[in-house]
Amino acid sequence: MSTASTQLPEGRYGPSADQRADRKLKVIGGALGVVLLVVVGWFAYYYVAQNKISAEVITFKATSDSAVEVHLEVRKDAGAHGYCTLRSQAADGSEVGRADFRFDQKSSRIDRVVTLRTTSRGSTAELLGCHAG
Description:
The chain is of the alpha+beta class. Helices cover 25% and strands 41% of the residues. The chain folds into 2 domains: 15-50; 53-132, Immunoglobulin-like, CATH 2.60.40.
């Protein structure tokens, strides 16, 4: 005695629904992967190649209850102009000062001490970013 097979004959009725779904998922996954790569590439280009000014805080010192001196080193293209934004926070974490400092000199490296005015004694000095323009 033999038993009847419950499976359809191979290839007789086209690809199964599972195979069609797998193909759709692969196409959608590939398209989303390409979009993700384009977005990451655009952000990398914008933040690295387009930002012609970079800087770092070397040291800072609270000189009074209303000022913080910040030693800032700026690196930029020789012809680039722009500004860097600094902020200071009090010991409790509240922001007590924020200012933009312009750098229009022709040199590619600027080493400068700037004074950030504060509303109360600042315990930090933080570089928020530099922008060309």
